[in-house]
Specification:
Layout lengths: L1 E2 L6 H9 L5 H6 L15 E2 L22
Antiparallel strand pairs: 1-2
């Protein structure tokens, strides 16, 4: 569970929890009752799904991939 701070947004929460904003869709799917929230007030309890966050060169943007 994650308890929001005033001003949290889905992408900021995903970055904080998983290290990458791309996981915000997974976070949103786990919390459909808050799907329409853009900026959270404080003290909203969110379900935090378990997600494999293994970073590979295939799922990183080109500028974050190692050189050959």
């Amino acid at each position: 569970m994650y308890v929001t701070k005033s001003g949290d947004t889905w992408d900021v929460i995903a970055k904080r929890l998983y290290g990458n904003e791309v996981f915000m869709a997974d976070l949103m799917r786990a919390n459909p009752e808050h799907m329409n929230v853009v900026i959270f007030p404080s003290s909203v309890r969110l379900v935090v799904p378990e997600i494999k966050t293994v970073k590979t060169a295939d799922n990183l943007p080109p500028w974050k991939r190692g050189r050959g």
